[in-house]
Design a protein that fits this description.
Elements: E1 2-8, E2 12-19, E3 22-30, H1 33-36, H2 46-59, E4 69-72, E5 84-86, H3 89-96, H4 108-120, E6 123-127, H5 155-168, E7 177-183, E8 187-193, E9 196-200, H6 220-227, H7 234-242, H8 246-251, H9 256-264, H10 268-291, E10 298-303, H11 309-319, E11 325-329, H12 333-345, E12 352-353
Parallel strand pairs: 1-4, 4-6, 5-12, 7-10, 10-11
Antiparallel strand pairs: 1-2, 2-3, 5-6, 7-8, 8-9
Helix pairs in contact: 3-4, 9-10, 10-11
């Protein structure tokens, strides 16, 4: 059972070909910024990215003729439950037009998967796209009417990490309560209750721990005053919260390994920032434990920064009173997309239908 997975990014497109669970080929196809700037919109990039991929496959002597399953990253959709969704016309229309208001390269995933499926004559899917929102309603309420919380986390990697751990302890994901932390360039920590992510930190809205490039939660009064200080434009402050905050703002680098090395070599400011990041992660884990009423089967850590053994040890030392801590370093996006499609093809999971009806609307509050 061959599966071709596609994960578009801002300056690259990751592709991988699987035969069942075995990865036969993977490549991160780079795109020159000048080439992408020629296109007026993201969807206009589809023929360009498609041809780049086809050229690469031809160079590598890889044929997709016997591949009948194509999986894209997905995005641009209205909120939905987690799961595997077969690409339909409504999904393509919403992805093409950024229906949820978020223009992100991941939106091209379903469009590219559909395009390749038409070439190969197969089926196209998305698996746990960024638009997954399974929050319980009480998690959405804030102290300001009209401002409500929504789920924007690393849903694909969260779900895959939880599924892997559940399998390792011979249980179903839907039988377990986990706290999953994706710790990389962005950091999202969520409470998984019986197969649903009921609460977490919204990385798009700037919640939770700071990260290498993100500010995380900051005091609202000081941020408001900064907004009206005249020293920053709206765009500059939004970027400070989501692109140039965290380690970048304090230390001038987004390289977490560099920050750790500086801390280990006596840089006291780097030490403070490294320890503060871990402290904030631990606090968020504690909050998710409370959301689960203390009924936690395991705390699972994934993402690139989890390769750092010191980080894992420090989090474990602080949190093992809640539940055992298990590290799954790295990202599993390509494997997760293939695994989701395989579950559908093998009949262990049923593909869902994208309806375009949000799982939750602000009018309810």
């Amino acid at each position: 059972m061959k599966i071709f997975t596609i994960n578009p990014g801002s300056t690259s497109t990751k592709i991988a070909l699987f035969d069942d669970e075995v990865c036969l080929f993977t490549k991160n196809v780079k795109h020159e910024s000048a080439d992408l700037e020629r296109f007026a919109s993201l969807p206009d990039q589809i023929p360009y990215r498609e041809q780049i991929i086809l050229n690469l496959l031809e160079q590598e002597n890889i044929s997709l003729k016997d591949c009948k399953i194509f999986v894209g990253r997905g995005g641009g959709l209205f909120s939905m439950e987690g799961g595997v969704y077969e690409v339909n016309d409504l999904m393509l229309d919403h992805a093409r037009n950024n229906a949820n208001g978020v223009a992100h390269p991941a939106n091209l995933g379903s469009l590219l998967a559909d395009q390749f499926s038409r070439i190969g004559g197969g089926r196209a899917f998305v698996v746990n796209p960024p638009d997954v929102d399974e929050y319980q309603e009480i998690s959405r309420v804030t102290g300001i009417k009209g401002i409500n919380r929504a789920s924007h986390i690393h849903a694909l990697n969260h779900k895959e990490t939880a599924l892997r751990h559940a399998k390792s302890i011979q249980k179903k994901y839907e039988e377990c309560n986990f706290i999953v932390g994706h710790i990389g360039g962005g950091i999202s920590i969520a409470a998984h209750k019986k197969g649903r992510m009921i609460d977490g930190n919204d990385i798009v809205a700037g919640e939770g721990p700071m990260a290498p490039t993100r500010a995380g939660s900051v005091p609202a009064d000081q941020l408001i005053r900064l907004c009206f200080s005249g020293n920053f434009t709206e765009k500059e402050l939004l970027e400070k919260c989501t692109k140039s905050g965290g380690f970048v703002d304090h230390l001038g680098t987004s390289d977490a390994l560099e920050v750790f090395d500086r801390a280990e070599n006596g840089d006291q400011h780097a030490r403070l920032l490294w320890d503060a990041l871990i402290y904030q992660i631990v606090k968020q884990i504690g909050a998710m434990a409370a959301a689960l009423h203390g009924e936690v089967d395991a705390i699972l850590l994934s993402g690139g920064m989890v390769y750092n053994k010191s980080l894992v040890e420090n989090i474990s030392e602080a949190c093992t009173f809640i539940a055992p801590v298990q590290a799954y370093p790295g990202e599993f996006e390509m494997q997760a997309m293939a695994a989701g499609a395989m579950r559908v093809m093998k009949g262990t999971e049923t593909a869902k239908v994208y309806t375009g009806v949000p799982v939750w609307t602000e009018s309810r509050l």
